[in-house]
Amino acid sequence: MMTNSVKKPVCFVLMLLSAIALSPVQANEDEARPVFIMHSSQDPNSPTSDWLKRVYAELFRRIGVPLEVVYFPGQRANVAAQAGDIDGQFTRIYDYQKLFKDQLRINVPVIKLNTVAYARVEDNLFLPNGWSSFESLNLRIDYVRGIVISDLNLKQWVAPENLTNSTDLREGLLKLKYNRTDVFVHGNIAVEPALDGEEYKDVLTAAGLMDVTLLYPYIHTRHFEYAPKMESALNQMKQEGLLLQYCIDAYGEDYRLFCRSIQPLE
Question: Which residues does UniProt assign to the signal peptide (predicted)?
Answer without folding.
Answer: 1-27
